[in-house]
Amino acid sequence: MDLQEIKEGKTKLLIPSRDKYSSPEEAPVFYNPEMKTDRNISVEIVKKFFEDSETPLGLDALSATGARAIRYGNEAKIRTIANDFNPKAVEIIDKNIELNEGEEKVESSHRDANSLMTDGKKFDFIDIDPFGSPSPFLGNAFKSIKPRKSLLAVTATDLGALSGHYPKACFRRYGLRSKGNPWEHEIGLRNLILAVQKIGAVNKFTVVPLFCYWKRHYYRCFFEVRESKRGINRNLDKAGYIGICEDCGRREKMNLIGKINCKCECGSKLKILGPTWLDYIGDEEFMEDINIPDPFFNKIKKEIKIKELHYNTHRLSRINGGKAKKKNYYIDKLSDLGYKAQETVFTGYGFRTNAPQERVIDLSKTDN
C-alpha cells in the first residue's frame, strides 16, 4: 500500500496516498481528510473531560488508520487502544504509533470490536465510529465502559433512517418510529441521542449529551455516562413526542408517558412525531472553555444553548402567508425583544430561539 505522511493537529500520520487513491473509499484503509474538524473537536472534548483524571483508558473501537486514536494519545494525553479488524489497518496503526513515538500512549489491537468489548476490560472512554449504524456496537460498549463518569462518543452515517426518510430502517436499527418532518437532520440527531439513551438505560446508565451535531454525511455525539437510576428517570422526562400543525405552523411537545394530544388549538389535526429527545443537544457549561478556530464548531457551540427546535423561514412564510423574510430579520427582532436567537447549522434558511412560538408566528405575519 502506498502511503504518504501528513500532519494533523500536533500529530504526524501515515495515510493511504491521495495520488494513488482518488477517494477514501477506494483505499485499502479508510482515511477521510474532511473529518479533520471532527477529529479536532474530539481531541479537545476528550482533553477537557479527563483534565483532572489520572491515567484514563480509551478505546477507539473501529480505528482504521488510527488517526483519531493516536491524536488522543499524543494530544489529549490519554492511554488509548486503537482497534481494527482489518489487518492492513493495524499495520498502518503500528506505523503511526512508531512515527509519533507513542508506544506508551497508544496500543494497537487486531480484534472484532464487539469481541474486544466483551472480554472484561473496562474503559473510561469509548469511541464508536462505524460505517452506517452504531447500533450493533452500543450494547457491548455499555458493558465495557466504567460505571462512574465515563465518556462515550458515537457516530452514525445512516442519516436517511434516523431523519425519517426510511422509517422501517429506523425502527429495525434503533427501535424508533421516524417519518418525514420539517426538521429532518435535527430530528435525526435527536433520534440518535434517544437511541443511545435507550440502550444505556437497559444497562443502568444515564446518558447525558455533552456536544452533538450534524455535518454533511454524519451525526456525531459525545455523552457523559454513569450508572444512575435517578438520572435515567430524569432523561425520560426530557424525551417525548412533537405534534406538528401543517395549517398554522404550531408545534407542541408532549411527554413520553402521558396523553398524546392529536388536535391543534387552531382546530386542525396534529401530525405526531416521536418519541425523540426534546431537551438540549449539548452542555453549555462543559463546552464553555473549549475553543477551536472553526466557524462550524463555534456556530454549534452557540446553538446548544437553546433547546427548542429550529424554525425554517420558508416554512413560516408558506404557512402564515406573510412576506418572505430572511433569518436575520427574525434573529434581530427577537434579540431586540430580549430572547436568545441565532442561526442554525441544520438549514441555511433557519434560526433557533427560545422565544414563545406565538411571538415567532406573529413576526412571520407582519410585513415590516
Helix content: 25-40%
Number of strands: 15
Give the CATH superfamily of the domain at 3-236.
Vaccinia Virus protein VP39
Query: What is the overall shape?
Result: globular
State the CATH class of the domain at 3-236. Answer: Alpha Beta
Protein described:
By secondary structure, the chain is an alpha/beta fold. The chain has a domain at 3-236: Rossmann fold (3-Layer(aba) Sandwich), CATH 3.40.50. It contains 14 helices and 15 strands. Helix 1 crosses helix 2. The radius of gyration is 22 Å and the shape is globular. The chain starts with a strand and ends with a helix.
Key structural traits:
368 residues; alpha/beta; seven-stranded mixed sheet; 14 helices; globular
Fold topology:
Elements: E1 3-8, E2 11-16, H1 36-49, E3 57-60, H2 67-76, E4 79-83, H3 87-99, E5 106-109, H4 113-116, E6 125-128, H5 135-144, E7 150-156, H6 159-163, H7 167-174, H8 185-202, E8 205-215, E9 218-227, H9 229-236, E10 239-244, E11 251-255, E12 271-277, H10 284-287, H11 295-303, E13 311-312, H12 313-320, H13 327-336, E14 341-343, E15 350-353, H14 357-365
Parallel strand pairs: 3-4, 3-6, 4-5, 6-7
Antiparallel strand pairs: 1-2, 7-9, 8-9, 10-11, 10-12, 13-15, 14-15
Helix pairs in contact: 1-2, 5-8
